[in-house]
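Quick one, T. Sequence first:
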Amino acid sequence: MFHLFASAVHSEDVGSTRLYFVNASLQRVTYSSSVGVSLPCPAGGTPSAILRWYLATGDDIYDVPHIRHVHANGTLQLYPFSPSAYNSYIHDNDYFCTAENQAGKIRSPNIRIKAVFREPYTVRVADQRSMRGNVAVFKCLIPAAVQEYVSVVSWERDTVSIVP
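Structure tokens:
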């Protein structure tokens, strides 16, 4: 998930006209396909800036009914969707946002937006053979689909934690 922190990290002043980033460090947004996500443009301006979203290729974002919508306030919304409606062009791609007013135009860094599916999975221990008194190395097997989201925090034997 993501967090937005309001702080001006870049500005171009022309009198009282300026453009700024709200969160220039936002680089990755991972969200659940069953929930969706609303992502405010990480830039703004005074007076109000025109906010637009693009794919990292520079292609304009277009609305896809019940899938993707850019609101008038510059928020990019990706709606919840079923696995059959998955489209990597929309649900696993790099996006960026621009803010434009009389001060000029600024572009956010690319933001990787990735949908993940909630799926049941099982973690198991690889079988190992060892003679009594020798060392055995055990490996926790995590399914590839969830590997980047799961970390091993402890080992147990019959519900009793094993400590080094």
